[in-house]
Give the backbone structure.
Amino acid sequence: MAVEARLRVTDLAAGYGSNLVLHGVSLHVGESEIVSLLGANGSGKSTVLNTISGFLRPREGRIELDGRSISGMPPHKSFRHGVVQVSQARDLFGDLTVEENLKLGCIVHGDEGLGLEQAFAYFPRLADRRDQRVSTMSGGEQQMVALGRALMSQPRILLLDEPSGGLSPVFVEEIGNIMRRMKGDGVTMLLVEQNMRLALEISDRYLILRDGKVIGGGATGELSGSHDDIVRAIYL
Amino acid sequence: MLSLLPQLLVSGIAIGMLYALIGLSMTILYRATTVVNFGHGDLVMAGAYMVLIFTIHVSLPFIPALLLSLAALFGFGYLLHRAFIWPIIAGPHLSLAMMAIAIGYAVRGLVRLEYGSEMAKMPRPFEEQFFFAYNTVMTLDEITFCVVVVVMLIASYFVFSKTRFGRIVQAMFQTQRGAALVGINVRLYNNLIWGVGCALGALGGVMLGLILVLDPDAGVWTLLRGFAAMTLGGFGSLYGAVIGGLIIGVLEKVLGTYVSTAFIDITCYLVIIVVLLVRPRGLFGQHATLRI
């Protein structure tokens, strides 16, 4: 019997034009669980997230949130069901301020969401810069705004695409701390991350994606100190 | 000669108000979708022709005909974006430009089906009147242009800066994918904005119909003036489009009187050339790049 899951993806096939990228991906994420998708560039990690959030239509397969199908829903509909993505490019509103960006995160919920002060509790650095235009901020600070904007709608599941990508070690550490806090608060996450140390430390489980297929995975708690087997599975 | 200047300024501002309205309607489309609608001039003129049809062929009074015309152009703009622009929105910029031009020509062709290349006169809602002050004369038409455009500008400012709808459009102007990531139905809002932009342009067309005879080819004339206003004011700036329109209106009158009447027709071209060369972002624009 299937385990009750917050998100369940079954036999998902998706791609761009005639190029099929995902070939029958199946995964699930339980409530308050964090699952990392690991894989080399081009393995289909971001495609999985884009298909779940509705930017790509699945060719085959099924996506369910709390047992209800959200397959093929456009992004605004999957968002209303609680699927919120933080994209690799962040896609922030650069000419707007930090506060305006955060408020837009819950605009479709009638501005009823996490609340600005609660968001700033996650990101104290942003509280001092609430009136600063986002385009003038560093990459790490912009990543915090992107995470904050996503949290504003109190998502049922957060899809994070390379949250530490392109950041300095200091900001990687800071983003890591924020994600640990989110984990402590029970935020359900499906995480795509190249920083394997960070991903495996934060996550409850991991899955290895290769050429659009899940080829392995397991509980991060069962891993020994060395991640050589995972690296070999990803790249060799 | 200089004694003419106050009159030229008054007349220039009045006609500039019309250019401003057309520029404003194009800017509203651009703000939402970052697409410049090169078929907009023909949709502006379609507004005037719709009033002509409703008043002459359906025998409606002017005001109901005007409201129906604006509603029709709103619906047309909504469907135009939904059916023809949205399906190719991710494609090359050139495709969007060609689609907009093709639709404009198609609309012009439809007008020709009924009117050929004949000129037509739109019925007037009121008799023309003249008002004199300080050695200048202003017509009731000109006063109407000024009042309508100022009201529209205030309404646009209120809607785009004070309402939830405006905040959403502002977000879409920054990044459409970002807007989708916060749950905004980007396609629906784009459709609505195209509807609003076309209706507003149609209002400009109806006002033009008060002072010009209607000509199926007049879309090019209106497009160029709206585009010049938008270019001078800065792409995406609402008040920039209005100020740009006013400056072009005044320049046309002043240069056309003091230099040569040829400047009445070529001022908008010159403005576009000079602005794109010297200050591509215009007077108030923030973005130097645009989707055509």
